[in-house]
């Protein structure tokens, strides 16, 4: 903003809001003395060279820690990949990244492993395993220039790791001074991320608990509202220790309760006069008790009966010692199974089982219909028999008439 007053003094100002964003003001006074000031918001302290507000520093440290973690992962991955061409077995033996970089920095070339003492960075068993793997390694030979670059990369990883631990300790102290109750509820890093996302502790205190719960998941929220699907249950608060130690089924409930208690803690830290963390400790104890109740409730439903807890059975020791079976010492001939089955069948035949049969009920209608159907069949059979008898009689008569004539001719 460029403005000129009635007196003719021209000033160039870059101003900020109350949220703690630093501003640079260049002004010229009536006496001609030019001063350059870097000043902070109402919550900060103005100095000649430069300073930032309390919440601004906290948010910057939180984002800086995230950036350092990303850079450390990239550096360590490249270091393992580069040194893996020369000594690939050591990457599987040493899993800790810092110990790996310190060991590589001390070893250098693979041929120096036998004469190098790694007891400062590795246990005795791991050190012996590394020395044994160096003798039968399948890696290729690399130049001294490559070894030098790898060692320089290891130095960078070690320095960044040490700086990261120092910065994290500083962040813990700052968060305990600025927002002790919020720090107790969600942790130092998650609290710093929440403050950084909202802009300041005062802006974060203005948000309701439902907004604190999904803070950091705005993209997923608007996508869910646009497509009419389920909205997200948690945002940055997902990385809190209370949410992380719950089962997947109860993460939504715990995140909702944690956001409600955290919003109270944020308002107490931002607007309260006391700087103790008693309220945060009490609310965290309540949430932990509620978490235990939810987890035990699920166990009771699975393995208990009703509302009673499932009782564990009494432990009984089962010995693995085998007992000698004396049945194999018998010299009597064993009876075959076939003979046994035959004897059992003979016994069953000898003692027949008498089963009382129920008399079937007579159905007069069905019997009458069956009798009516059987009578015509009987009549037909009788008529056929009568016809056959008549035919036999006729044949006998014809034979009787033919026989006397044949006798006369003879």
The CATH architecture of the largest domain would be Orthogonal Bundle
- Span between N and C termini? 165 Å
- Integer-rounded radius of gyration: 49 Å
SSE sequence, one letter per element: EEEEHHHHHHHHHHHHHHH
Helix content: 55-70%
The description of the largest β-sheet is: 4 strands, antiparallel
Assign the CATH class of the largest domain. Answer: Mainly Alpha
* Structural domain tally: 3
Gross morphology? extended
Average per-residue pLDDT, rounded, comes to: 74
Oligomer: single chain
Strand order of the largest sheet: 1-2-3-4
Query: Runs with pLDDT <50, length 5+?
Result: 1-52, 362-368, 404-410
Strand tally, please? 4
Family: Belongs to the NOP5/NOP56 family.
InterPro entries: Nop56/Nop58, Nop_C, Nop_dom, Nop_dom_sf, NOSIC
Protein name: Nucleolar protein 58
Keywords: Nucleus, Ribosome biogenesis
